[in-house]
Amino acid sequence: MAKSQIASARYSSAGDRLFDIANYTFMVVLMIVTIYPFINMLAVSLNDAGDSIKGGVYLWPRVWTWENYDYVFKQATILHSTWISASRTILGTLVSTFCSAMVAYTISRPEFVLRKFVTIAFVLTMYFNGGLIPNFLLMRELHLMGTYWVYIIPGILGVFNVIVIRSFIEQLPEGILESARMDGAGEFTTFLRIVLPLSMPVLATTSLFTAVYHWNSWFDVFLYNSSKVELSTLQYELMKMLQNSNASISSSGGNMDGSGGTAANFVTPTSIRATMTIVASLPIVMVYPFLQKYFVKGMTLGGVKG
Length: 306
Known about the structure:
This protein is mainly alpha-helical. It folds into two domains: 2-73 and 245-302, no CATH class; 78-230, MetI-like fold, CATH 1.10.3720.10. 68% of the residues lie in helices and 1% in strands. A two-stranded antiparallel sheet has the order 1-2. The two termini are 49 Å apart.
């Protein structure tokens, strides 16, 4: 029996090793497939635009240059639109996360008699909405068109975030909330001093979702503020820049000389697209590592209950 157990353990450990090898191989391949497009875009953005036309730029720039970034950041509206995007992302994320957490705490309380009705009403909005034209008319009637607040107020409550935060709050020990009430704390004090600090993992998760939405959003700018240059966002300006780019855009007004050299450096739609991708995604990529541990924990704990 001892020999058979040893043999079984040997085969079992060999199977475990084979599984580990296959698992690690799959994860490495998945990582390469996920990261390669970003690295390729970075290489193209740092490569000379004329040289990139030839192709063959994969992981490393063949002819280094900062001309693509110089062209993008020399646009008159880029810096101001970056500020609008950053302020919108910060303010919109803070307001939306706080309001969503308050609503989530309300519908998580068993003593709230309308909690089931309100939850169903919220969930229905995830499947049905008024449509583009009614939303446009609503923004006009609320006098939000042509204002900065059209970026903040419509997204002040995220239904998906409310559901996730509610599921997380329902898992908090009820004894902690009861002890706070016994000490004289009201509902808002309990929410502010007890629930919010304990809900940091899920709040970080939903904040990341909301921040990515605000940072990447450009369609609402097109709908409501396209005529307001001072309210334009980075994504909208980059989209316009890409649409207006031709096969070859001179960054200094020069042309190709007769010998095949360049009298002035130039950029192409491909180089602009790669540069804009890096510029637009880099802030979120830099923020994510600081929220990763909260993101994973929040999604795991917040997704246990429906």
